[in-house]
Amino acid sequence: MSSTTVESTPSPRDAESRTQRSGDGTSSGPGPTFLRVLNSEFIKFRTLLSTLILLGSTVIVMVGFGALSAWGTGQFSEAASRDPEAAARIAAQGGDLAVGVPTSGIAFAQLILGSLGVLLMSSEFTTGMARSTFAAVPKRIPAFAAKLVVVVLTSFVVTAASALAAGFVSVPILANYGLDLDLGSSQSVKMLLVNSIYVAAVAAIGMALGTLIRNSAGGIMSLVGLFFVAPIAFQLIPGDFFVEARKYLPGNTVDPLTALDHVPDTLEAWQAGLVLGAWVVIPVFLAAVLLKKRDV
Amino acid sequence: MIEARGLTKVYGDKTAVAGVNFTVEAGRVTGFLGPNGAGKSTTMRMIMGLDRPTSGSVTVNGSPLTGHAAPLRDVGALLDAKAVHTSRSAYNHLLAMAATHSIPKKRVHDVIEMTGLAEVAKKKVGGFSLGMGQRLGIAAALLGDPQTVILDEPVNGLDPEGVVWVRNLVKYLASEGRTVFLSSHLMSEMAVTADHLIVIGRGRIIADAPIQEIITGKGQGRTRVRTDQPDRLMQLLAGTGVSVEVQERELLEITGLDPRQIATAALENHVMIYELTPLQASLEEAYMELTKDEVEYHSLITTGAVPVEAGGN
User: Fold this and answer.
1) Are A256 and A271 in contact (CB under 8 A)?
2) What is the DSSP pairing of strand B148-152 with strand B75-78?
3) Measured between alpha carbons, how far is A102 from A174 in angstroms, rounded to an integer?
4) Which of A260, A263, B90, B219 is buried most, with the most CB atoms less than 10 Å from its CB?
5) Which of B2, B73, B85 should we substitute to test contact with A (largest number of A Cβ atoms within 10 Å)?
6) Residue B222 — pLDDT band, cuts 50, 70, 90?
7) What digits encode the pLDDT tens for the residues B102-153?
8) Which one of A8, A24, A137 has the shortest CB-CB distance to B168?
9) Is the whole model's pTM more than 0.80, yes or no?
10) ipTM associated with this complex
């Protein structure tokens, strides 16, 4: 069916473009520098439909949840305004409810982009692509690092952009209820940046899991276990240890980082930053070491 | 040039490759022959730096692949036709591979054209037939215009014209002075493609010699003779080192004498011969003979390690 032309003398290259070979038989020419590998990983990233679908879903979910949350917040504040007691309660929380609206879909964004992180690496192994990747870059670590950069940057940019879009959608809805959301306020900017960094961190953890487990389902399940099951399980298991340990779960670091004031029974902001950093650095480091060591 | 020294790979309690030594020279097609599970693919993956040797080493042009500044330009390999993300198009796959070495887009188009993939290049690899997958793997192997080409079972799944194409391609590559290392479990394919043969069985090198030597080395001059006086001829030829096998009433197979000696004896004694056929062992027979008891034959033209124990299954 495909027209396969059989040449009697196959020419593997143009005669004129034939490169002169040095005596020891190693050809000269550009090798895999980090920027080239980064370019390659970016091509791989953008040429998969599944990647684009996941990125698109993130935007839709973030904007959708932003709009829903704006509406819900409006309804709530309207109800509260008729109930002085509730209004006082909100005021006591120092509550500017609207500021959290643009990032209200973050729990789902982290799941989607974290899974994307898992998939980008696990699919290398499940499809056999890894053999091509690491034959071209036998040192392996540059390819791993380049992929990590692509995953982290894209997750950050997509989360930030979709949170911003969610903000733009939310402002008029909130205004309907007489609520004012200033996207340029320092707290709004902080919410956007911290949440985007957080999602990028989750994506990095996902990629580390994908590298370690090399299996899409297993990697995603581990991610879900860490971010969704563990916080609930730690809450259900009685004992002070789990109450304490729960604070150190990566998913519980984002609130301390965005809180205006320190909330009791959570980590300080700087502690949360360190804990989240450790949750990224340790798995990524382990993944890199094992990737270098193991057979592909 | 590829050089393996004491190359060993152990998976758990199974020794896939047991301390092999061999050299693949430039300028000729070296076949790597062995039954399934003999250690061919493992050896090739170790050459490509994908599997780490348990012990020993393998180098391409003097250094392991991790030491090469531009690996794709030095070594191209088809290790597995499906070493490609199934959801990506062939063109994008090659483009991403090329990007690692700043190989121009023109070269990507060239290898697509050369391997006959032009029509399907924009389609997802997942929908490819085995044959198209092989062509894509070969395209990827040639992408960097490498000095050394490693092809693991390249004719698997190819249609007859594809088989001929690969055969011509590897010969052409070798004629340009490149190192071509080609594995197969098909002896017939090796017989028409390879110049030199490395035979592996159960992780050990059984033979490492020019292909002609392997074929003739085994078949110790058998000759098929038809005569209407078989008994008389047998008496005439009897002697030390000569053995005669009676196949049919007028058909003998004689070992230990060449056709000329048989003809001379028959002529001098007026025995009519109506067939005199020198029998050359086919590569297939030679191969069967070699692999039927790898320990017994390991000393034959071998460069492999002395087997300590017939390990594995």
Assistant:
1) yes
2) parallel
3) 11
4) B90
5) B85
6) confident
7) 999 999 999 999 999 999 999 999 999 989 999 999 999 999 999 999 999 9
8) A8
9) yes
10) 0.86
Q: Is the pLDDT of residue A169 over 90?
A: yes
**Which among B152, B168, B10, B174 is positioned nearest to B79, based on CA atoms?**
B152
Q: Give the model's pLDDT for residue A93.
A: 56
Structure tokens, B204 = 């050990």
Q: What is the token pair recorded at B260? A: 């000329």
User: What pLDDT, in 10s, does the model give residues A111-156?
Assistant: 999 999 999 999 999 999 999 999 999 999 999 999 999 999 999 9
For chain A, what percent of residues have pLDDT higher than 90? 72
Q: CB-based contact (8 Å) between B17 and chain A?
A: no
DSSP letter assigned to residue B65: G
Separation of alpha carbons A122 and A219, rounded Å: 8
The two structure tokens encoding residue B120? 């399907």
Residue A289: burial class (beta carbons within 10 Å; 0-12, 13-18, 19+): exposed
Asked if B26 reaches chain A (Cβ–Cβ under 8 Å), the answer is yes
In order of A95, A247, A279, the CA distances from A267 in angstroms are 20, 7, 15
Q: Which amino acid is at A166?
A: A
Consecutive H or E run containing B208? strand B204-210
A49 interface with B at CB cutoff 8 Å: yes
B101/A132 touch (CB, cutoff 8 Å), yes or no:
no
- Residue A92 confidence (pLDDT) above 80: no
B306 in contact with A at a CB cutoff of 8 Å?
Answer: no
